[in-house]
Write a structure and sequence with these properties.
Elements lengths: L1 E5 L16 E5 L25 H10 L12 E3 L5 E3 L10 H8 L17 H15 L5 H8 L5 H4 L4 H7 L1 H17 L8 H21 L5 H8 L15 H19 L12
Antiparallel strand pairs: 1-2, 3-4
Helix pairs in contact: 2-10, 3-4, 3-8, 3-10, 4-10, 8-9
Amino acid sequence: MIAFLPLLGEGDHPKDGGGGKVRQAISIYPPFGTAVSAPGLDPAAPMGHHTGPFQQEIALAVSPRSSAAKAPRAWQRMLSGRRLDLLDPSPFDIEIEDIAHGLARVARWNGQTIGEHAFSVAQHSCVVEEIAAHIKPGLEPKWRLAALLHDASEYVIGDMISPFKSALGVNYKAFEARLESAIHVRFALPPKSPVAIKTLIKKADRACAYFEATQLAGFNKTESLSLFGAPPAGYDLVIEPLPAPVAQARYLERYRILAEATGLSPGPDAWHTE
């Protein structure tokens, strides 16, 4: 079935010497997959004289913008084969091997550090877990695990420096919080850590940043103290950035030790029955 629609800005056809109106013949049946209804169609009306919503809907049907815009991809495929939806992250799509692999290849300080290798988030996370246990002796294994995982979301979103996070504002923080909650649930931790634990981990994180800033990122001690505060008494650190595969292996080893201690994964003798 054919209908005739005036072209946009109906005018004279140049071949007619300016005397004829231009009409475009189109099928009223839209391309496959495009839903169009036909209110206002009068079968008795002369060709080209259908008015109302139907004429508008035909125009939509033949427009290159007629079909609904395809939503942008918001998931990332991991080397494990998992596909993580960043807007609606599921704990079922999170694997520690993917986290370790990613964090070992994400650089702290946007890579602006001295040395042959970048100082990775994986190595940083291991240090933070160690400092947290130094600050609070006897810290439960599950909270040490929380310290190890404190930057785990960066395996997909990268390590954004604090000034940039502040510039992005609340929306970014909410996005990051959803991902962190999914990670916590995946590893049998509360979606949100208790305030005391968050404060402890933040203190350990800032202490690690102090050592990183003075040894790797070109800050002097006075500047670092003003930004990050003094490291905890009795704790000292000499940083040697590790190659990515080594940092990845170390992160996984710490995870396995803590997962076994928390009962998240079985110990080596768990299946022995004699």
